[in-house]
Amino acid sequence: MLVSHEEINFCAPVHRRDGRNELIDFFNLTDSLNVTWMHATNNPEKLQEGLTGDTYMMLEADVLTKHNLPNGEPIMAHPPATESNLTLAKFLEQTLYSSKGIKLDFKTMEAVEPSLKLLLNMTNGRKIKIPIWINADILPGPCYTPSECKPVDAYRFLNLCLRYAPNFTLSIGWVTQFNPTYYYNWSSVIPMGQLLVNTTQPVTFPIRYSLIARSLDQLEWLMDLSETYTMTIWSSETDEVNPKALAALRMDLITDRRRIYYDLPSDQMKNFLKELKTYEKKETDQLLHVIKVNWQGFAPVGCKSVLIGQSSIMFTEHGGWASTDKDNNPLNLRVTHYTKHIILRTTVLFIDENQIGISQNISFILHVPSIAKNKESFDPSSGTQAILQSNGNFSLTTPSGAVSSASVSPSNTYEIMLTDVGDGRVIFEVKALGVEGNKLNMISVHTKDPKYFYTVIGTLPQAGAVLVKKLQMTFAEAMPQSGTSCLLFNNSLLVLLLALIIIYLLSFFSTGKCATV
């Protein structure tokens, strides 16, 4: 796979403000589960109820302009209402210096600019301590009734928030409807990630409870884009919901207790808490010697085609590259027989939302020079290329032209392990997931000691998208072996056992004792 010689743009990482502690610190909590919410705080009586006592912490209110006019006065009302006896100015006067947080919800674009101007005028230069969230549905989601599926303009909304409310949290989501078959598909979620490439404000995503069960992969990826992102689970009284899916989201996928808020009807909240008490947390593999890698993005068109998260990389239709920020050298560690194996382990998901059977592939390239230092002359063929195709074919190619290839059952998801052995061998193991006969297959090649040790992952422009997730690089020490019969997928426990035995023996020898195993 060759790279066209057009300019490659370096995508600098964005330093986002961290809002994970905003609510729990303000309300003196340890878990976002305990934040409580009041809805439709749109009249004086409801506002006084919310401000009194400690039943509610966050007060959500809807903002329109009077008679829904572009230059009308901002008022607290929910469509179809167009009048109210509570203005935004009065609402802010009573809440900005209170002990409650506020969430201003915008259903129409007409109300955004005059409301944010007013908010800026009333907060600028003053010590406002309460949490303030600015909420709107800015993208179409699983919603298929045209009259009910109109998001506000995403770019205008984000630009106005940056201009007038840069210090407050963005609560941005999708227009949705309830249907048992609906979910947040990739066509809805990827654009959200692209919209936020350069956003530095704290972000929370309002997520509809009933859509979670079928959207776990999408939500896990979205939240992986930044460890500072949070989500707010909301629901309608009449939605059919799945407490087990919500428990899985909390216990297995997003385990940071600061990152998920639960704004649910009381009955749904009770059932969820009941499910949490009996939910069995999924066990995860603990790999030895994790290497800290900061992946750097390089894209031929802007920086929306390579979305780098904490442990994932999404390549969209324009393609691009992600490179390690430092070399990982698998040379012999000491003057002994031990070698250092660099192991790249990940899951690859080929995304074809339209299910038209498009051909996709992704490359993992070892032993290449730094892209950052060689943007104009970067040539992946100078390294050892491991290519995986969506049809299950995969291959290894050395710079000298030696090729090894094999295949596994076709799938849209593959688990791979790429091992760079210090004696010049490279081993590529692939397993198809979710299909019958999904046996592991392995190939290997020998290459001369390389000059460079940077690792690069990438795609050329192609239809659909490719997600590399649960990406992890580790190293393990091992004795050199003849041939390539060592299947690392099956020998993880053996490596762990050997390491424990060595530690056990060293602990005895260090105290002058003898041990017999």
Beta-strand residue fraction: 25-35%
Return the average pLDDT rounded to an integer: 88
Radius of gyration of CA atoms, rounded to a whole number:
27 Å
The end-to-end span amounts to 50 Å
- Count of DSSP H/I helices: 10
Helical residues, percent:
10-25%
Sheet/helix structural class: alpha/beta
User: How many runs of DSSP E, i.e. beta strands?
Assistant: 24
How does the overall form come out from the CA principal axes? elongated
Largest sheet: 9 strands, mixed
Stretches with pLDDT under 50, minimum 5 residues: 1-5, 332-336, 482-490, 512-517
Care to give the gist of this entry?
This protein is an alpha/beta fold and 517 residues long. It is 20% helix and 29% strand. The strands form 3 sheets. Strands 2, 3, 4, 5, 6, 7, 8, 9 and 10 form a 9-stranded mixed sheet that branches. An 8-stranded antiparallel sheet has the order 1-11-14-23-16-17-18-19, with no helix packed on it.
Name its key features.
single chain; 517 residues; nine-stranded mixed beta sheet; disordered N terminus; alpha/beta
List the helices and strands and how they pair.
Elements (H helix, E strand, L loop, with lengths): L8 E3 L10 H5 L10 E2 L5 H8 L6 E8 L8 E3 L11 H8 L5 E6 L5 H12 L8 E9 L13 H11 L4 E7 L10 H10 L7 E6 L7 H9 L5 E5 L8 H11 L6 E4 L2 H13 L16 E5 L6 E3 L4 E3 L4 E5 L14 E13 L9 E8 L15 E6 L3 E5 L5 E5 L5 E8 L4 E8 L8 E6 L7 E6 L5 E14 L13 H18 L8
Helix pairs in contact: 3-4, 4-5, 8-9
